[in-house]
Amino acid sequence: GGTLTIHTGNVIVSDTLTDRANDFLPGPYVLLSVADTGSGMSQEVKEHLFEPFFTTKEKGKGTGLGLATCYGIIKQSGGHIRVQSELGRGTTFEVYLPEVRGAAGAEVSAPEKSRKPDGGTEKLLVVEDDVAVRPLTLSILKSMGYDVLEACDGMEAIRLINAMNPCDIDLVITDVVMPNMGGKELGAWLREHHPEVRILFTSGYIDSPLHGNDADDLFLQKPFTPGKLSARVRQVLDRAHPLS
Question: pTM (2 decimals)?
């Protein structure tokens, strides 16, 4: 039951609505609004709404990646998303995408990359077998300005790196547990063949073979928030390299 209302339009966003701290600047936008008359959300739920893996569903009923993926796509496109919701009074999502003038299909030159907080322009390789986690991780990192490649396991990562001449990857972000070849084996191969490439390991297992050793600053526990991912990536890229 209830009513779902979808609305689109062109709007001029003023200073009173913007949030410069989150790169939501005044100007012309295309607005997509989706409103329902459902049960609404509590303030606590709204505070965690866009975090990866956060869900109000029962265990096994959902991954909590949908809204986090939406958030990453919208931010990557230079847009902004707002949520208004109260318990018993429904929810409204408003998506603001920057308006682009010109004929449909016309090429628009990409803005020059500039480093954002906890972001950069380095080339990263994400090695992740989970088809839900990988695109989300890519989206988060691209929204921070990075040039990002992807692979589904260690063997595919090696094939991709071997095809490069020379290898210009700055950081490999790899899951530890994967089919065919896991992150630990990939890390050993990288240290032998490309010791200049930095490595950041991730895992959802507390008892990961890399968790708790002296390389904690090179490990990121799943689930992670976009902020934790971007901060850890920047930390690994900025630390003194053993070869330097």
Answer: 0.56
